[in-house]
Design a protein that fits this description.
repeat, YhbY-like_sf, elongated, Translation Initiation Factor IF3, 28% helix, alpha+beta, CAF1P_plant, four-stranded mixed sheet
């Protein structure tokens, strides 16, 4: 009954209800005294007068462009370097006198496209003629004289004994951890930049040499002094102390463009021939069998110091015509480079690289060379005149 009566009553329209509710809220908001007691500033979206908001004064200010990382597609001005030598990936493991017979890949610059104002020949970036098209790239004889004069100007007056000892003492292991490691690739182009970075904070830097390049430490020392214009003030085994010079200005350091990747190795003639010169096929096969059966002269450790290998092979040739060197555990490219260095330094004839062994033959008419190649494990710089006194010592490579 009651529900029926309520349903019969007239309900107010929905529009009238909304209007009354809006008037009630507006009246209550305007009559509220909370704004007088609290300093509340409503945001623009809730402000009763949104049209009176103050304009942003920074709208007319020039907007800063968004950051965009550098891209290889951008045009970069080619880098110019006044260094008076051809840029190579490695200065100790590649020789300008050895001409390759071809290239494995098309010629492309390891410095990046258009980043260097020198033409990459596949082997080097010549300093003389950037338009050279030959594979080897000939060097101007005047460049060596230019490097010598520049090195003399940077070195200045030679160090006295007290100054040398102070610099050597600062580079010892108990004084500093700064060190550059020279590994299987030898003195690389990017390592030149590392040496100059170390010279920014210290007058001398310690260089640790291990692996294949240590077979010819004389070449390593020569290339370091020639390409960095520095001076080696101490050498013990494979550890060198390289001094930057009295007149070295770190603010005027040479421009050394970095190689972004390692270039492909060119194709060189085969080291092991089918038949050894002067022998028949049967005699060559018999010599290879005997070479793999002779006692091992020495076993080379991986990434070790091989500075005494050449004198050992020369001494062994006095009593035996075949010498075998155990290279178990070494990379095949590493003991191929070792065999190539022995062929040029001993000299000798390569017989085989089978079973991770390097077998060399002294030849029919062997005579010990008198070229004075013996390079001692330690050099003494204690003479007041600055002359280098070299003496032969026992193999001290194990303590390195």
């Amino acid at each position: 009954m009651i529900l029926t009566r309520l349903s019969r009553q007239k309900q107010p329209p929905l529009a009238i209800t909304a209007t009354l509710l809006t008037r009630h809220l507006s009246t209550s908001a305007s009559s509220s005294k909370l704004r007088d007691h609290y300093s509340f500033q409503p945001p623009p979206s809730l402000s009763p007068n949104p049209q009176n908001t103050t304009p942003n004064p920074n709208l007319n200010k020039k907007q800063k462009p968004k950051y965009r990382p550098a891209s290889s597609l951008d045009r970069i001005k080619p880098t110019h370097s006044d260094l008076a030598f051809d840029f190579r990936f490695s200065y100790t493991e590649s020789s300008p006198t050895v001409r390759p017979i071809g290239l494995r890949e098309p010629k492309y610059s390891p410095f990046g496209p258009g980043r260097l104002d020198r033409e990459w020949t596949g082997v080097c970036a010549p300093a003389v003629d950037p338009k050279v098209k030959s594979v080897d790239g000939s060097e101007d004889p005047k460049l060596e004289e230019k490097r010598r004069l520049l090195r003399e100007r940077i070195q200045g007056t030679p160090l006295i004994e007290a100054e040398r000892k102070i610099l050597v003492g600062k580079c010892q292991r108990n004084k500093t951890k700064r060190q550059i490691n020279l590994g299987r690739d030898g003195l690389t182009h990017n390592m030149l930049n590392d040496i100059h970075n170390h010279w920014t904070y210290a007058e001398a830097v310690r260089i640790k040499c291990l692996g294949v390049p240590t077979v010819d430490m004389k070449n390593v020392c020569t290339q370091l002094e020639d390409k960095t214009f520095g001076k080696i003030i101490q050498r013990h085994g494979g550890t060198l102390i390289l001094y930057r010079g009295r007149n070295y200005n770190r603010k005027k350091r040479p421009v050394i463009p970095l190689m972004l990747w390692k270039p492909h190795e060119p194709v060189y003639p085969r080291l092991i021939k089918t038949t050894i010169d002067g022998l028949s096929i049967e005699e060559t096969k018999e010599m290879r069998k005997r070479g793999l059966a002779v006692p091992v002269l020495t076993k080379l450790a991986k990434n070790g110091y091989y500075g005494s290998l050449v004198p050992m092979v020369r001494d062994a040739f006095l009593v035996s015509e075949l010498v075998r060197i155990d290279c178990t555990g070494l990379e095949r490219s590493d003991y191929k480079k070792i065999g190539c260095k022995l062929r040029d330094l001993v000299p000798c004839i390569l017989v085989t690289f089978d079973k991770e062994q390097v077998v060399v033959w002294r030849g029919r008419d062997y005579k010990p060379p008198d070229d004075g190649h013996f390079f001692s494990n330690r050099e003494f710089f204690d003479e007041p005149s600055g002359d280098v006194e070299r003496c032969d010592s026992s193999d001290e490579s194990n303590d390195q």
